[in-house]
Design a protein that fits this description.
- 49% of the residues lie in helices and 16% in strands.
- The protein has 214 residues and is of the alpha/beta class.
- The structure holds BIS(adenosine)-5'-pentaphosphate and magnesium ion.
- Magnesium ion binds next to helix 1.
């Protein structure tokens, strides 16, 4: 199935994506991760977007669509999960065309719903493994053994430079401005499912699994 996650920064898209990727074999396409990889590799695109990401600005549709297109050219065989994409109506329409080209279509759009206060809390505590990117939260979802990644046993962790209250408020403003037409677009297609993402990680996962019937 092709699944789309939409939801504000810090709502838990990446956390639930880990489950679909690791346990259900989905190909995880996160445009945020793709852009950060470009940055890390020091490519032309990476240099171009660095400042905008750090300041919580949206990246141009053209850049984002080119990165997604490149990923889809690898023709993932199993399910595909789009995380944080599409974020504009232009991206949503372009995604439909790209999927049409490979004879696929979206099966479900999961809309993560969480209060704004909770988003600030989650972003404040987010950190991740430097090696495998496994996500954690201080104090709510810490590694089982202090200082050691549950997944790859690395002992090094990092935070994201855009995870400050000031930048988060900008990211949330962008989201609020652009999400309504996207919700409407998928509602019309009868694909939209609203998920109560304020519950625990496990409860959110259970609700998501029941939506996706997997
Ligand atoms: P991106 O990386 O996509 O960031 P985002 O959408 O702001 O979302 P986040 O990754 O911050 O949050 P998340 O929902 O994944 O939450 P997570 O699971 O980590 O994009 C970054 C930037 O790239 C954008 O600002 C923009 O500049 C650019 N960009 C990306 N896509 C673009 C596009 N399509 N077009 C244009 N520009 C684009 O969880 C957060 C924390 O909460 C963690 O600590 C986690 O442990 C914890 N947590 C998770 N679930 C729960 C729970 N149920 N209860 C308690 N804690 C929880
Ligand atoms: Mg994420």
């Amino acid at each position: 199935m092709i699944v789309v996650f939409i939801g504000p920064s810090g709502c838990g898209k990446g956390t639930q994506a880990e489950f679909l990727k690791n346990k259900k074999g989905y190909t995880h396409i996160s445009t945020g991760d793709l852009l950060r990889s470009e940055q890390q590799a020091g490519t032309e695109i990476g240099c171009k977007v660095k400042e905008d990401i750090a300041n919580g600005k949206l990246i141009s549709d053209d850049i984002v669509l080119a990165l997604v297109k490149k990923k889809l050219e690898l023709l993932p065989k199993n399910g595909i999960l789009f995380d944080g994409f599409p974020r504009t109506l232009k991206q949503a329409k372009a995604l439909d065309l790209m999927l049409l080209d490979i004879k696929k279509e979206i099966g479900c759009v999961v809309d993560f719903s969480v209060t704004e206060d909770e988003l600030y809390n989650r972003i404040k505590g987010r950190f991740m493994c430097i090696k495998c990117s496994r996500l954690y939260n201080d104090p709510n979802y810490m590694p089982k053994v202090k200082g050691v990644c549950d997944k790859c046993q690395s002992t090094e962790f990092k935070t994201r430079p855009d995870d400050t209250a000031e930048v988060l408020s900008k990211r949330l403003a962008w989201f609020k401005e652009l999400v309504t037409p996207i919700r409407e677009y998928y509602k019309q297609k009868n694909l939209l499912k609203t998920l109560d993402a304020s519950q625990s990680i496990l409860q959110v996962r259970e609700e998501m699994v029941s939506f996706l019937r997997i």
